[in-house]
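Ligand-bound model needed. guanosine-5'-monophosphate.
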Amino acid sequence: MEDCLFCKIAAGEIPSNKLFEDDRILAFYDIDPQAPVHFLVIPKQHIPSAAALTEENGPLLGHVFATISRLCKELGVENGYRVVSNVGQDGGQSVPHLHFHVLAKRSLAWPPG
Ligand code: 5GP
Ligand code: ZN
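Prediction:
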């Protein structure tokens, strides 16, 4: 999609600090980390947010979460992690392309603000 920041990152038009990439997804470090480990996982396909997901996206989501689990193991995450997908204005979404935040290596408060 034109004028979408994460579509441009997925296409390599804007550089990112990549952790993993395949034909369906990209994992890269957040530019403004909120934890010692903070990376984002995005589908390469433009999906505006988790609110736009359908049953057909099940395999994609399984792939996203299996990749997150593998990457956390590879990064030496031992005490758990948090996966967050902000949706819309009240959810705090600032980039309208589906992304999953992965935060780790510090104790995270609950509930979030
Ligand atoms: P949201 O606020 O939509 O849940 O999350 C968007 C995230 O994207 C934020 O954590 C923000 O720091 C990150 N971000 C915004 N622009 C860029 C960028 O150009 N590169 C990278 N790596 N992260 C970005
Ligand atoms: Zn996009």
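The pocket of zinc ion (ligand 2) is lined by residues 1, 4, 6-7, 46, 97 (CB under 6 Å).
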